[in-house]
Amino acid sequence: MLSENIKNMRKEKGMSQEELAEKVNVVRQTVSKWEQNLSVPDSEMLIKIAGVFEVSVSSLLGETVEIIDTKSELAEISQKLENLNAMMAERNSRSRRITLRLVSVSLIIIALFIISVSVYTLIFMISPARDVAIIGGADGPTSIFIASTPFDWITPLLMIVVPAALIVISVFLFKKSKQ
């Protein structure tokens, strides 16, 4: 068992017999004899060998240590990482879709608010009391058109363009959130 453990642990660490011999200060042939079960290391040497392999002396002396198939272990770890990446990608995609939907709904609410304010404002823009003033003169009352602001032509345009743009953007974002 000791001979198999030394051989398996050395191979697991990727060491040659010569490398192990250098680390424990013996010749390569001594390591070869240990692995062929032709000789046995003394107690001090067992402690050195266990230190090189980073195991306890009892595990070095214990049952046969099997070589771990690192390729299958790496494939298993790789598969687990791939599954985690897929789960994280799905979570990020879901989060992105929710954010886009919230933004699109917010834009529609803003558009509806602008439309309601615009309709209210438009009612007062059309009011004759605002645009026409009656001024009395020497020859009697005269009707004169008075513009209240220089941007009166922009207000109706903004009442249509801004909400329409917000609705178009929100529809685009909502469709994009379904992808």
What does this structure look like?
This protein is mainly alpha-helical and 179 residues long. The chain contains eight helices and two strands; from the N terminus they run H-H-H-H-H-H-H-E-E-H. The chain has helices spanning 2-12, 17-23, 28-35, 43-53, 57-61, 70-126, 128-131, 154-177, and strands at 132-137, 140-145. It has a two-stranded antiparallel sheet with strand order 1-2. Strand 1 and strand 2 (140-145) form a beta hairpin. The radius of gyration is 43 Å and the shape is rod-shaped. It starts with a helix and ends with a helix.
How is this structure best summarized?
With 179 residues, this protein is mainly α.
Helix content: over 70%
Q: Describe the global form.
A: rod-shaped
Amino-to-carboxy terminus distance? 61 Å
| Overall radius of gyration | 43 Å
Number of strands: 2
**H-E string:** HHHHHHHEEH
Give a short account of the largest sheet: 2 strands, antiparallel
* Helix-strand makeup class: mainly alpha
Strand order in the largest sheet: 1-2
- When the domains are counted, the total is 2
Number of helices: 8
Beta-strand content bin? 5-15%
Spans of at least 5 consecutive residues whose pLDDT stays below 50 are 129-133, 143-151
Oligomer: single chain
